[in-house]
Fold:
Amino acid sequence: MPPTVISIGDLVVDLITPTRLPILPFKHQEIRGLYLEAGGGCNFNIMGQRLGLDVRPVGAIGDDIFGMALANILQAEGIDLSGVAVLPGSRTCVVLDLIDRDTHAHTFVGSLAEGPLVEFTPAIEKLVRRAGAIFAQGYNLHEDQLPILLDAVLTSARRHQVPIFCDTGPTLGHGIDSERIRHLVESCDILMMTEEEVPLASGGRTGEAAYTYLFEAGAQTIVVKQGGAGCSVILPTERITVPGFNVPLVDTVGAGDCFNAALVYGRLHGLDWWGAAELANAAGAASVQKRGSGRNAPTRAEVEGVLGRALA
Structure:
């Protein structure tokens, strides 16, 4: 059986809008296509499932047309939604992805999900206990429906010694209390972030001071994503620099999520840090050659094509 990975929250609908940035008042544009797609953490879910993980999202989607559309997309990818609640009166998170078709720059305009708190059920406890890994994100701290679920999943995973991967992300600096950030960092084993996000996860620190802070907080490994240049794996006693792949750039939306899924896949399939990071770089490189997110994520074959070999 493939390893099971529990992905927490961030179940988002993207409205992908090819346009020209910046958008200015009264400067109207005609676009070619506006696409409804799975976004946010769903990029991780789809990429992980395509690589060969058994990805089980937990959280909630809205009791609305967007939630229904999102459920249909994920189920068509073979993703089990038994851990996802559809709560009456709730609203799905929807993000308008404004993507410049000439420069490939993008910006997001969105609304957070709304609805009742999501409970930590015995069924989810059973999933966590049997999981190979947990995937969390800094964005989870912004999700008003998730405080109970997030804390319970992380606590249960720690109790059952299930490794916790976390992409700290760019949103930690947007109104999140420092104690909540510290608690998330202390709960996770493997932290993924970009260079720009390092200070957000480490109380404003950079470089070695940031890494020392994060290791003392409990992290075992820090993976710093560096776009086309590749990534660096920071261990308490070692630094591993893994170069990226030179590929044509079409769109960077979702590339970091695909990187994350491949990194988790690699570690759960016994790759060392160099091998897992190389695979993650390949997934990111395969992603940037395609436009948009969700179902536009790379296939396993496309990742293998960039990597230059078949996955075990």
User: Anything to note?
Assistant: DSSP finds ten helices and 13 strands in the chain.
